[in-house]
Amino acid sequence: MKHLCFDYGSRRIGIAASDPSATVVRPVTTIDCKITPRYLDEIKKVLDQESPEKLIFGLPLDPYGEENEMCAKIRKFADKVCTSLELSLPIDFMDESYSSVTTQSIMIESSSRKRRKDKKTIDRIAACVILEGYLREQSGQISLY
């Protein structure tokens, strides 16, 4: 089953996708909502291109595993995506609490200083980290995040 994952932020939305077997994850794009106020049109293009069977949204739970104000915004965003684009795909949410730390580690190990500061790249990689954790959890493997 092919998955599409969203790392939603107040300015940017990082998007990652899995392959149809849900074993390989890759970055797709980052949408800057300030530059692209019609971000739903861009999301529609990605959905048409990727043809996912399930959508995943990262939730930044607090240290006690509880939802916070940002989680409410992300749930509202997920609802807006599904309603506005008239989607009937199943959706799920994944704790993204430690995705930023993991993303920073990946960026430090694998790229130049200039690329490490590129927020668009960071958001795409964070979406990959969230999706990879979700797929591990779904397959019964222990998540490293």
| Name of the CATH homologous superfamily | YqgF/RNase H-like domain
State the separation between the terminal residues, measured CA to CA: 22 Å
Helix run count? 5
Task: Characterize the biggest β-sheet.
Answer: 5 strands, mixed
Beta-strand segment tally: 5
Give the spatial strand order of the biggest sheet: 3-2-1-4-5
In terms of quaternary structure, the protein is single chain
Description:
The protein is α/β, with parallel strands linked by helices. It has one domain (3-138): YqgF/RNase H-like domain (Nucleotidyltransferase, domain 5). The protein contains 5 helices and 5 strands. The protein has helices spanning 39-50, 69-84, 99-110, 113-116, 119-138, and strands spanning 3-8, 12-18, 25-32, 54-59, 91-95. The chain has a 5-stranded mixed sheet, sandwiched between helices. Strand 1 and strand 2 (12-18) form a beta hairpin. Helix 3 (99-110) packs across helix 5 (119-138). It is globular. The two termini are 22 Å apart. The relative contact order is 0.21. The mean pLDDT is 87.
Task: Outline the secondary-structure elements.
Layout: E1 3-8, E2 12-18, E3 25-32, H1 39-50, E4 54-59, H2 69-84, E5 91-95, H3 99-110, H4 113-116, H5 119-138
Parallel strand pairs: 1-4, 4-5
Antiparallel strand pairs: 1-2, 2-3
Helix pairs in contact: 3-5
